[in-house]
Amino acid sequence: MPELPEVETVVRGLAKHILGQKIKDVKILHPRSFVWDKSMGPTKPNITNLTVENISRRGKGIIINLSKDLSILIHLKMTGQLIYVEGKSRLNFGHPDSNFVSQMPSRHTRVIITLTKGILYFNDQRLFGWVKVISTQEIPNDKFIKNLGPEPFDTNFNLKYLWPILKRRAKSNIKSIIMDQSVVTGVGNIYADESLFLSGLKPTKAGVKLTQQQAADLIDNIQKVLTKGIKYMGTSISHYKTDQGSSGKMQNHLNVYGRKGLPCKNCGQPISKTKLNGRGTHYCHSCQS
After folding, report:
1. Residues designated as active site
2. Domains along the sequence of the chain with CATH
3. pTM, entire model
């Protein structure tokens, strides 16, 4: 699943190409992939002739604000992708896999949004992702949005906020805490491992056992790792691509994730991998405790 740097890269790339365009038509090829806020009524809302005014991100969700106070929320989940085709140009956002994007629409295309200049395809191989229409003013009340914790770069994601959470969750390891989207949003498996490595904390360590200084350092390192991830346009471990169809470069700057058995860049000891909360977890036995 894309994490904050990957989704931020998608948002920035998409904004370059579709801002200011009008929606001419929406075709739904799979009903599970296109939903709407039920307070808008029982029938699919009409978003044709509305203009794309702004594109932003909340956690791992993409927000496309339209004219007339309507918005589109998109979550790519495990295999979602957005492909924008304009003339002979095709731009990939998310998880392009050559096995199923060679021709548009493909057998995994779920929603087609025709714009003034081009066409935006929402593909999703496993049908976990979604496109949702909602009133712009209702976005903070959306079930997905309202359950999200602060953004990692928000000023309220600080020691005063995190410290009581660590004390309350006595049975939780620190990795599961920082990956909980209701605690802080946007941190997934890759960037959790990297943040904990920089902080010298073993992922299995109980959050309640952190000192205040360790907690403060962890907040700082989460921000550093995510900033670096954005700088290098995300991590291409699987099929994630940038808007130009190239791989993100963050995987070339990882310290532990995906480096099982390779020497630690700090101490030279082999990087370990274990299963934690069902997720592959990488760390250094020597540098993290």
Report:
1. 2-3, 60, 279
2. 4-146 (3.20.190.10), 159-283 (1.10.8.50)
3. 0.89
